[in-house]
Amino acid sequence: VLSDLESRKVLYVHAYCIDNCLVRVADLVFVGYGISKQADCAAKVVPKAYPTESVGVVAQRSSKFSVVEYSEISAVQADVRDPNTGELLFRAGNIANHFHTTTFLRSVASFKDNLAFHIARKKIPHVALPDGTSVKPTKPNGMKLEMFIFDVFP
User: Fold this and answer.
1) 3-class DSSP state for residue 59?
2) What stretches of the chain show up as alpha helix (H) in DSSP?
3) How many Å apart are CA 130 and CA 47, to the nearest integer?
């Protein structure tokens, strides 16, 4: 895909999650902002509606910004407020709306093996072995290892 984009002289990519029906495809303001700031990548965020909203947040881990999934933040952490504004400290909700340069995407190959999986606890439907009935769990019964496009943020 990258070779094809480069052969057509595409310099920038706007990527978004398929379940975001309100996204502005090829958002000129967002893409233009990323270009004007000479950013390798960018994430559009919206304020979380409430502390336990099931949305990842852009936050600083050690010295680098990344998306922290909602399942990786405790209820206590999710409710921490900025002492100056009273707003949620972890409020930059990731809406899976991203900007990347093709140069940056090409560089991902050099560090992709260092990316960590996110652990998602899921309700996994299954078949009961004794009688073959279908089981739809009411609480998480398994784990899923996930990686996301935003895991490549520097």
Assistant:
1) strand
2) 2-7, 28-36, 75-78, 102-107
3) 48
- Pair of tokens at residue 87: 């707003």
Give one word for 150, left, alpha or beta, with left for phi > 0 and alpha for psi -120 to 50. alpha
**CB-based contacts of 44-48 (< 8 A; 24+ apart in sequence):** 44/95, 44/97, 44/98, 44/99, 45/92, 45/93, 45/94, 45/95, 46/93, 46/95, 47/87, 47/88, 47/91, 47/92, 47/93, 48/88, 48/90, 48/91, 48/92, 48/93
Tell which wins on pLDDT, 99 or 108: 99
**pLDDT, tens digit, 9 for 90 and up, residues 35-55:** 999 999 999 999 999 999 988
Rg (CA), the chain: 19
